[in-house]
Amino acid sequence: MFINRLTADKIDELNKRIKECKKCKLSKTRMNAICGEGNLNAKIMLIAQAPGEKEDREGKMFVGPSGKVLDELLKSSGIKRQEIYMTNLIKCMLPKYRKPKQDEIRACSYYLNEEIKLINPKILVPLGYYATCYIFQKYGISLPSKAEFSSVFGKLFLAKDKKILPLPHPATLLYNSDLKQDLIKS
Ligand code: SF4
Q: Which of the listed residues 55, 127, 167, 172 has the most CB atoms within 10 Å of its CB?
């Protein structure tokens, strides 16, 4: 498959900056800042919230229990991990799985924006509340109230040159097998 050398070089450069980044206080509690990974020609970009403990230790995306759920969902959709690009809204682990803070999202979203520009996927799949809020705001889609938020999961939105398909975060599906089965069937 043809991979644009310039894109690959720019992603390498970006990843170097992510690994060394100290723009927010999460740099003090992480072991590894986790760069995006996957196919640089991907049509689909998955955007998770932040790495978990196992990802932080191993320095790779979706190696923990959420990764297993993700693999199941991808398999049921006939998609291979190698076909997509995966990244996080926040590149460093959130201590004790706490929610991300607005200043952390502001500091880190620069990297996600660069990844979207360089990979230029057709379909963005934000996973969970925070990644979906960020992508909706970026593309001018109005946000539903928090109480109605789950109604956006599994629906397709069109914005500029992108299709946006928000899904619940795989970590949520670990504890909600009904929802997981619904998604596998849909
Ligand atoms: Fe830098 Fe993002 Fe990590 Fe904060 S979370 S230190 S902005 S890479």
A: 127
Give residue 77's pLDDT band: very low, low, confident or very high (50, 70, 90).
Answer: confident
Whether ligand 1 lies within 6 angstroms of the CB of 92 is answered as yes
Q: How far apart are CA 25 and CA 110, in angstroms?
A: 16
Contact 45, 121 (CB under 8 A): yes
* Distance in Å, CA 107 to ligand 1 centroid: 7
Structural domain range at position 157: 5-185
Residue 121: its H or E element: none
Ligand 1 proximity of 26 Cβ (cutoff 6 Å) = yes
Closest protein CA for atom 2 of ligand 1 = 108
Span 17-57, pLDDT tens digits: 999 999 999 999 999 999 999 999 999 999 999 999 999 99
61: domain CATH number? 3.40.470.10
